[in-house]
Amino acid sequence: MAKRENESYSIQDLMKSFIKENNLSKGMQKLKVEEAWNALMGKGVVNYTTSVRLQNKTLVVQLSSSVLREELSYGKEKIIKMLNEELGEQVISKLMLV
Asked: What InterPro entries does the database record attribute to this sequence (predicted)?
């Protein structure tokens, strides 16, 4: 019978190493960005959001309301800052509202 090591790891550490070993970090970032958008922007904005995509360091948000798109365009820098703070790293450098 093989001898077991008594080292214990947290699930968070195991998930991080699994994501790193399998090159899944970009996909996970895309999911986290969409979750952060939904959490920070509120129900009113999310109702008019049709898609949220992360391409390189550009966040592309498709909105069904042109009025809302114009309103959000005035606060692009603030939105980028809020999303990056929520994600805990500098993931987004540009925001495109389509």
From this structure: DciA-like
